[in-house]
Design goal:
Layout: E1 4-9, E2 16-20, E3 34-39, E4 42-52, E5 66-67, H1 76-88, H2 93-100, H3 103-106, E6 113-120, H4 123-133, H5 140-152, E7 154-156, H6 157-163, H7 168-176, E8 180-187, H8 207-221, E9 228-233, H9 239-252, E10 256-260, H10 268-278, E11 282-285, H11 291-302, E12 308-311, E13 323-329, H12 346-357, E14 360-365, H13 370-377, E15 382-386, E16 397-402, H14 420-432, E17 435-439, E18 448-451, E19 468-470, E20 475-477, E21 484-486, E22 499-502, H15 506-516, E23 522-525, H16 533-544, E24 550-553, E25 566-571, H17 585-597, E26 608-613, H18 619-625, H19 629-643, E27 650-658, H20 661-675, E28 683-696, E29 699-708, H21 712-724, E30 732-737
Parallel strand pairs: 9-14, 9-15, 10-12, 10-13, 11-12, 13-14, 16-26, 17-24, 17-25, 23-24, 25-26
Antiparallel strand pairs: 1-2, 1-4, 3-4, 3-5, 6-7, 6-8, 18-22, 19-20, 20-21, 27-29, 27-30, 28-29
Helix pairs in contact: 1-2, 1-12, 4-5, 8-9, 17-18
Bound molecules: adenosine-5'-diphosphate and zinc ion (2 copies).
């Protein structure tokens, strides 16, 4: 008899405990179950990680007390995935297991929503009542309600009250008379809010899509062989259509599918495409769901009521039990990496989940991450390409403008970041009634405030970064911690009024654009102006309807939006993302230029992309304008190979944070000594040093950067010491495996 359960408690102990399964619970307790157990002097919730017959515990085991309410159980295979995550990402088991279950489900506080439904108790009796009393005016409303129910079988309270103007007292009277019965039923909260969807069917594949589908169908139908494919298709090449048809095949086999998209592109437009094809089989998961909606979506998936989930990062852990396909759209996106523990990368965990459950994984992108492209070239992933746009539109013309050679635009000095060429191009579009997009990857008005007299730069007092100036409310804001103060009118150091703002943000572009394009309708889209989903939808709709001529924005506008009337994209300053001290800066810049350029010329008119830069001959910019991903990859890989940066090697960072600089730096040095024995000659160590942003929210930050090959043992050491060593009280330590940023 298997009666011993290994249970992990909802505390961060990174340890499983053995409990006895009492006879009353036998058969109910399964791997992944949530149970109540005695712990110390109290009661705690825990998750069952395993069930067996053996224990090493020398004394008598305590009994599991009961099952947690709701019986939400994590599928067994997901529990395994959680354990892998804990090991690989060097976090505690609890942190990993907790990620598998949304808080709304875990907390046990959220219940199914119920709604009373009404039906006639006995139809014959109701008919007689109606017939006998049909002339009595006082009974009119009761008779009406009975007739309704006789015609409709049953109706919800909401329907009766709102759609048929029945009063609460009528319902209660009929209940009392025993003519009508009430029944409480579970109903699902509806995150779609009754959006009307027009159904559509599979499109006839283009020849390229046909080839892609054939390969993918083969992978889906054959349980053996490669399970991951990289779908490398330029913007507008019909990747989404390929996803949709693959999902159909998986559903036909009786299996389920997960579609991951970056949170930023999880717009109603995206969701609509999946709902149009698969209707109510689709569940949606994103950060704007209420806890109640999230609870319902999770349960719908767990109960097999839906077959497809479309969602951001966390949707990867949808509790499907017969998973056939995982799609990771825009797989190169940064936001797939979680910023807090467990610091997992959803793309990589997707590949792992696919491997564990023998599901096919499709990674899609127009600008693949180096990691995925590397795996595709080495044969680990199947490489599938889509090189043509479905609408047969040609790629836009890309032009580089050397800002240094063109300072003569507009009428005043402030507009110098509109070169003459860009200014005229926008003006042309205004004349022709076409639309323009202007892109700049920094929000706010000016990058920094500086005193011209003494050189003082306004910096956040908690973080070692300069404040960004926001003009509309005259504030200086820290983009690190969000702190915000009233902008200075005099220098706090020397009292001079010679305050200067340098560097530009979207807010300033908007202000200047309004000045030089007097009659244009202009809107701005960045995280300052788009605080709600409704604001975002509104601007998109206005733009789509042609009520906006120029849309200015950050990367928020770079993502998968289709606007046929946009014929010009201007990149205000391409250097901005290029000169960040991070080995991925060129890769991100290439991606940004390509993505933004993909917004131009989706209609009948050829699009034009103007890239303003101080470094026109930079290799990254040159490759991007030639649409030469492969050349760019080969070139940049040379450097990465030399320095063992991913994907040539693994990259792991260990972070130390605390209020006392001395304590942080001393401990970082000591910690490095713990790791030394696991660092063989194929591992490059960057000794403990202050992080590029040295201080955030008044905490000093130190960082150790480790990279190289064969890192399994090193990871084990890091995990062990990060979780078990006795850190100094004020110092927080964590590891970031496959770190996406070195800041
Ligand atoms: P991507 O995801 O690669 O950017 P989409 O799948 O969004 O491309 O396709 C671009 C446009 O082409 C969409 O409007 C889509 O409906 C349409 N489309 C895709 N495949 C086909 C097809 N085989 N036949 C007709 N239209 C298609
Ligand atoms: Zn000064
Ligand atoms: Zn700050």
């Amino acid at each position: 008899m298997q009666h011993i359960a290994k249970i992990i408690i909802d505390l961060s102990l990174d340890k499983a405990f053995d409990y006895n399964i009492p006879a009353v619970l036998s058969g109910k307790v399964k791997i992944g179950s949530r149970v109540n157990v005695p712990f110390g002097r109290g009661k705690r919730q825990g998750y069952v990680l395993g069930i067996g017959t053996h224990t090493d515990f020398p004394r008598e085991l305590k009994d599991i007390l009961s099952m947690c309410e709701g019986h939400s159980r994590i599928p067994q295979k997901l529990v395994k995935l959680g354990e892998w995550m804990a090991d690989y990402y060097c976090c505690s088991r609890e942190q990993a297991i907790r990620t598998l279950l949304p808080r709304a489900v875990r907390s046990g506080k959220i219940k199914h929503k119920t709604m009373p439904f009404y039906a006639v108790a006995d139809p014959a009796e109701a008919e007689i009542f109606v017939a006998e009393n049909h002339e009595r005016k006082v009974l009119h409303s009761q008779l009406e309600m009975l007739k309704l129910l006789l015609n409709h079988q049953d109706m919800s309270r909401e329907q009766l009250l709102n759609e048929h103007n029945v009063s609460v007292s009528t319902i209660n009277t009929l209940k009392k008379k025993g003519l009508v019965i009430e029944e409480k039923r579970h109903i699902a909260r509806d995150p779609f809010h009754d959006v009307q969807i027009i159904a559509d069917k599979d499109q006839k594949p283009t020849p390229e899509q046909g080839v892609a589908l054939e390969k993918l169908a083969e992978m889906i139908n054959q349980p053996e062989g490669r399970r991951t494919a990289l779908l490398f298709g330029i913007t507008g090449s019909g990747k989404t259509e390929v996803y949709l048809q693959c999902i159909s095949r998986v559903l036909d086999k009786g299996q389920d599918a997960i579609v991951l998209v970056p949170e930023i592109s999880l717009t109603p437009q995206t969701v609509r495409r999946f709902r149009a094809r698969f209707g109510d089989m689709v569940s949606v998961m994103h950060s704007r769901l209420t806890e109640g909606e999230r609870f319902d979506e999770w349960n719908k998936i767990s109960d097999g009521k839906v077959r497809i989930v479309v969602g951001a990062r966390s949707a990867l852990f949808a509790p499907f039990r017969n998973l056939g396909l995982i799609i990771v759209d825009e797989e190169h996106e940064n936001s797939y990496k979680q910023g807090e523990a467990p610091r997992y990368h959803a793309r990589d965990v997707a590949v792992m989940r696919g491997h564990m459950e023998n599901a096919v994984v499709i990674l899609g992108s127009a600008t693949p991450s180096f990691e995925s492209y590397h795996n595709a070239l080495s044969g680990k992933y199947e490489l599938i390409r889509l090189t043509r746009r479905v609408d047969k539109c040609v790629l836009p013309i890309m032009k580089v403008i050397d800002i240094r050679l063109d300072k003569s635009s507009g009428d005043d000095k402030k507009s110098s970041f509109f070169t003459k060429m860009l200014y005229e191009a926008v003006n042309d579009r205004l004349w022709r009634g076409e639309q323009s997009i202007l892109f700049l990857n920094r929000r706010g008005y000016a990058r920094q405030m500086m005193c011209d007299n003494c050189g003082y730069v306004a910096e956040c007092s908690e973080c070692s970064v300069a404040y960004t100036y926001h003009q509309h409310n005259e504030t200086l804001t820290c983009h690190m911690c969000g702190d915000s103060i009233k902008a200075h009118t005099r220098c706090p150091d020397c009292q001079s009024e010679e305050i200067k703002y340098s560097g530009i943000g979207t807010e300033k572009v908007e202000t200047v654009a309004k000045k030089i394009f007097k009659h244009a309708r202009i809107a701005r889209m960045d995280s300052d102006t788009m605080k709600t989903a409704a604001a975002y939808e509104h601007v998109l709709n206005e733009f789509k309807r042609g009520n906006i001529d120029i849309l200015i924005g950050t990367q928020m506008i770079a993502k998968g939006l289709h606007f046929p009337n946009v014929t010009l994209v201007g990149i205000i300053n391409a250097d901005q993302s290029l000169h960040i001290p991070d080995f991925r800066a060129p890769e991100r810049t290439f991606q940004l230029i390509t993505q933004v350029a993909g917004r131009a010329g989706r209609g009948d008119v050829k699009g034009e992309v103007l890239i303003q830069t101080f470094t026109p001959f930079n290799e990254t910019i040159q490759s991007a304008i030639k649409h030469d991903f492969n050349g760019f990859y080969e070139n940049d890989m040379e450097v990465r190979k030399m320095l063992m940066y991913p994907p040539a090697g693994h990259l792991i960072t260990v972070h130390f944070q605390g209020e006392e600089l001395n304590e942080v730096s001393t401990y970082a040095t000591q910690f490095m000594e713990y790791l030394r024995p696991a660092c063989h000659e194929k591992i490059i160590i960057s000794e403990p040093a202050p992080a590029p942003v040295e201080r955030v929210k008044s905490k000093y930050r130190y960082i150790i950067i480790l990279r190289g090959e064969k890192t399994t043992q090193l990871r084990r050491y890091i995990r062990h010491y990060a979780l078990n060593a006795k850190h100094p009280k004020g110092v927080h330590v964590y590891a970031d495996v496959d770190a996406q940023s070195l800041m």
